Amino acid sequence: MKQVVQNYKSGELAVLDVPVPGCKPGGVLVRSAFSLISTGTELMKVSEAGMSMLGKARSRPDQVAKVMQSVATNGVPATYRKVIGKLDSYTPLGYSLCGVVEQVGAGIDDVKVGDLVACAGNEHALHAELNWVPKNLYAPVPDGLAPRHAAFGTVGSIAMQGVRQGESRLGEVALVIGLGLIGQLVVQLLAASGVRVVGVDPDPVRCELAERLGAAACGDPASAAVETAVAELTGGHGVDQVYLAAGGGSNQPVELAARLCRDRGRVVDIGKCRLDLPWNAYYEKELDVRFSRSYGPGRYDPSYELEGRDYPIGYVRWTERRNLACFLDLVARGSVDVEPLVSHVADFDDAVETYQRLKDGDLKAVAVLFRYPEQAGESEGVAATAVAVPAVNVKRGPVRAAKTPVRLAFVGAGNYATSMLLPHLAQRDGVELSTVVTTTALSAANAQRKFGFAEATTDLDAVLGDKSIDAVFVVTRHSSHAELTRRALLAGKTVFVEKPLALTEDELTGVLAAVEESGNDRLQVGFNRRFAPLLQEARKRFGARTGPANLRYLVNAGRLQHGSWYLQQGTEGSRFAGEGGHFIDTASWLLDADPVSVYAVATSGNDDLQVVLRYPDGSTATISYVTTGPAGFPKETLDLVADGKALRLDDFVRASLFVDGGVGRKRWVSSRLPKARDKGQNAELAAFIKAVRTGGPMPVPLQSLVATTTATLAVQTGLAAGALVTLAGAR
């Protein structure tokens, strides 16, 4: 088998062929699926190995003391040989992984061959294809938890033990200094416990990530913003706990901790930072300084770790293994989200190059995963998972043509509804805005005043029970779309729901179950771009094609403002889950087919995505969804190339068509639109109202809406699995 090793004397990193470990009693043999690089602990070890002998000595004074003791006992020559022998040997790297049980040792009855387990330990959860892991250093992975997420188990346990040492209580305020991998997890664990968190890190990207994952505020340690946030959250008293998750030789973290901690507060050291405590500051506040020992009770105890002797739960509630199992459960239930922390996934064979890139600073990362051969093979052509595209089989009930005027109800009246939909409907002939429903009375009253709704209410049931209402618009936050759509369909209404239709496969299944139960398939999702006049004309001029096409769609999505509900990924889904359906639908409409596979890769935090869609005739569409571009750059640019023709769309302002027959020859260029960009909302609404009024077909077939939604959801599935996702049953 292969294993990542390092020579501490020379600093050499290598992937070596080594013997497969035996499966001893009291443990299991685990074949790795994903292992996690700790960009703090492991890179510190890698960096130390590259130092001179003097540098190594300075960085490890504890080891120097042991050497001096050996010199006193055994003499210089014997000590020299011992030290050089130890330095000039290969040592392993890694301590956090997820894999499949391949063999079960004697005395093990809680797992079986084929089970997925998360493993811990710098001697047992190594970057290696196979590891023997004793009983108290593994935990079964809950159903539904992706292997790449379970690989975070050990570092999650480290963060959890630190939080336990802080004894945080509901309603308290905590300061987390250092927003690397451990710090980001501490932020989430505290937020999940009802603690308000302020984060500190000099890297603005890490600060932004922590805020997205639950921190109330974050900032540079040198800025006044952090002190201001602490003062506002604590009424000027200071934080209840400080968690030191920073490394390096600066004493700034412990000084900042003393300054911002309240009287008799707690300071917990989780990382390995300099602890030159300013005596006066700590004495005057009587601060309680605590250390967090790795994964929890049992660590460094051979009888616990190697011999499998557990501590009675009545005496030690949270051991290493119990912390590991608890963290896995939190991730499985969505209370902690590790996917935004994945900066890079590398094939195991590329381990040496990956470490070198991290060391040199070429790869900026919070967390990096190694993907092992079986997993890597899947991403190169064999699907890691297949997602079924639900078939729409409905015994359609009679379709009733609406009387004139068509009576509409709106559920939700937020920015999009009031700026992009209602202005097109308020003055449309043959349309009556009957009722607006919101959760707050004032927003309903405002919408009624601005757009002339006959009624404003907060009673959804009354609207769904009103037989005079022909169609319902669902324009609420993403997390409520599927349930509101389901209820409206069951009530017999024609439904227009803004994207996304659903955030999970279960939500989509629920909507289709309502269609089947009611016989009502009168549904439209707000995929408006296919209705844009400029894109309609460009597609018509491009004409039919005979061969496969290549489509490139660049979406310069931009950054969201702090506090935007789009950042609430735990409840509202990722940005791409909310918005990506627009671009997949546009690509599928241009290619006149539904995708059959999805492959996605992401940058740190999953904000910037590359999504590759494959279609039945071999066509491909690549959607680049980026949030880091300049604000002045166009939001959407699209290129479609096939059969010697190339269509270009420039942000719904201008389109052009290039054809063979001469260098640089242009066949058609649209005039620049005189008004604001028209992305098709008006034409989409006209088509929807016509379908409601006449009882004719909906503007977009329901199967297409389902296929687009399934493909959008498959992006997150593919990111979690690190591999291609096939869309089983796709047309």
Q: Structural class, from secondary structure content? A: alpha/beta
Tell me, what is the CATH class of the largest domain? Alpha Beta
- The helix tally amounts to 25
Numbering strands along the chain, what is their spatial order in the largest sheet?
17-32-25-26-27-24-28-29-30-31
Gross morphology is globular
Uncertain runs: 376-383
Average pLDDT number = 87
By CATH's scheme, which homologous superfamily of the largest domain applies?
Dihydrodipicolinate Reductase, domain 2
Instruction: Evaluate the radius of gyration.
Output: 29 Å
- The total count of strands amounts to 32
| CATH T-level topology of the largest domain | Dihydrodipicolinate Reductase, domain 2
Described by strand count, sense and barrel closure, the largest sheet is: 10 strands, mixed
Do you know the CATH architecture of the largest domain? 2-Layer Sandwich
**N- to C-terminal distance:** 42 Å
Give the count of structural domains: 3
Portion of residues in beta strands equals 15-25%
Helix content bin: 25-40%
